[in-house]
Design goal:
The protein is an alpha+beta fold and about 130 residues long. The chain is about 60% helix and about 20% strand.
Amino acid sequence: MPRFFFDFHQGSKITADASGVEFPDVEQAYLEVFKAGQDMWGELLKLRQDPRRCHFEVRSETGEVLFAFPLREVLESCHDRIADHYVLETLRQLAETHQQAQRLKEEFAAEIELSRVVLKDSHKILRTRTGPD
């Protein structure tokens, strides 16, 4: 099974991984570094350090850098799902409110028209009872 090394970069400080961890493939290594990033996020914040400025470089046994994992991906992955949910919910509520406002506008216009007709009829009745002006 291949061995992967996770070097942690925090600003100009680098903590090299000397032992590495075995995983079946690079995809599993990515999932593990993502989990590590999730775990480290809160700890870095407690230490008053900005996790968005940190990243892992994942190396193979030969020392080749396979990929870099910026910790901000943890926040972005969470943000995207939350944002998508709230955006979709907000759009749904907006469409519902728009439909309701449109319906109320039409009802209000109909009531105004009915009031005009009643007022016009009332004027006719008043003229016939009191005579022409």
